[in-house]
Amino acid sequence: MNDITVCIATIPPRGEQLAAALASVAAQSRQPQAIVVEYDHGRTGAAATKNRALARVSTTWTAFLDDDDAFLPHHLERLLWCAETTGADVVYPIPHVPRYESGRDPMGRYEAPFDEAELRRRSYIQTTTLVRTELFHKAGGFQLPKQFPGCPFDDWGAWLALLDVGAKFVHLPETTFVWNHWGKGEPGIPGNTSGMSSRW
Q1: What is the pLDDT along the chain (200 residues), one digit of tens a residue?
Q2: CATH homologous superfamily of 4-178
Q3: Which segments of the chain are extended strands (E)?
Q4: Where are the domains of the chain?
Q5: What is the pTM of this model?
């Protein structure tokens, strides 16, 4: 059973990016049971928009995708396989980052086992994950990290909250999605627009 919902948060001007993201979902080797697209018509921000999408999910698993990124065709199949094989609550893969010649974010932490202490020190897991829906509801969904006032990374806040409710994180050491950086910041500093207030 394809017990997965894909959630995409977006804003009305980003129709072209959203269409590309949806095309990547349509090309999956393992199709989701549902796709939820949540628009931020009221400029409530990234975390609130993603949480409204999450509230509409009734499947066991939720797969998140930013509207300016894309799944590779095997993304859902491999992440679900990893979750079922390991008993993980959160599975995170390796992104391909076109902005960098190497295809890798130099600040990333890839092909190494999950490290809770490292995640509590810095954000190194992207939004594009597979998460056990019920546990994510329990953790409170996307949120700014309370431990780091002023930090804009609502996905990092979500992962920290999931740690606090006992979630098991597993890294899938395979490249399964495209993470676009749009030149915001210097090399080595995340440059996509997902958490930027100007986007929302």
Answers
A1: 569 999 999 999 999 999 999 999 999 999 999 999 999 999 999 999 999 999 999 999 999 999 999 999 999 999 999 999 999 999 999 999 998 989 998 889 999 999 999 999 999 999 999 999 999 999 999 999 999 999 999 999 999 999 999 999 999 999 999 998 665 444 444 444 444 545 55
A2: Spore Coat Polysaccharide Biosynthesis Protein SpsA; Chain A (3.90.550.10)
A3: 4-10, 34-39, 61-64, 70-71, 90-96, 130-132, 169-178
A4: 4-178
A5: 0.91
